[in-house]
Amino acid sequence: MKQKCINEKLIKVYIKIDNEREPICCGCGRGSVPLSHSHIICRKRCKEIGKPELIYDENNIELECFGDNNSCHYIWEHGSLEQKKKPVLLTSEAHRS
Fold first, then answer.
1. 84: alpha, beta or left? (left if phi > 0; alpha if psi -120 to 50)
2. Which residue in 16, 19, 60, 85 has the most C-beta neighbors within 10 A?
3. What is the reported pTM?
């Protein structure tokens, strides 16, 4: 699948998520902070396992706060396993599994 096609589908999914979901971080529950679309299985890994369709699967995308290295998105992307296990990041069903 061409990257252009993936990007087009991903943008449509981002818009759908923004229109249908509460604007609340799935990690900490805050809604008064900037939010980012965060992949549960990162885009690179989706391609590595031969499942590029997961990149634009709305069930593989969460809304998470971002902006500094204490944000849920930063911890999900770069944090240690211990940081990821803290209760603040366990409010999302997808992140628990």
1. alpha
2. 60
3. 0.81
In angstroms, how far is CA 46 from the centroid of its own chain? 13
> What is the spatial distance between Cα 33 and Cα 25, in angstroms, rounded to a whole number?
8
Cα–Cα distance measured from residue 73 to residue 93, given in angstroms and rounded to the nearest whole number: 15
Tokens of 39: 């992949």
Question: Look-up: residue for tokens 């590595």?
Answer: 48
How many residues appear in the chain? 97
How far are the Cα atoms of 24, 35, 44, 50, 81 from residue 18, in angstroms, in the given order? 10, 10, 23, 27, 29
Q: Which residues make Cβ contacts (< 8 Å) with residue 60, sequence separation at least 6? A: 39, 40, 41, 46, 54, 94
CA-nearest of 74, 79, 64, 80 to 29 is: 64
Q: What is the DSSP letter of 50?
A: T
User: According to the model, what pLDDT value does residue 51 have?
Assistant: 97
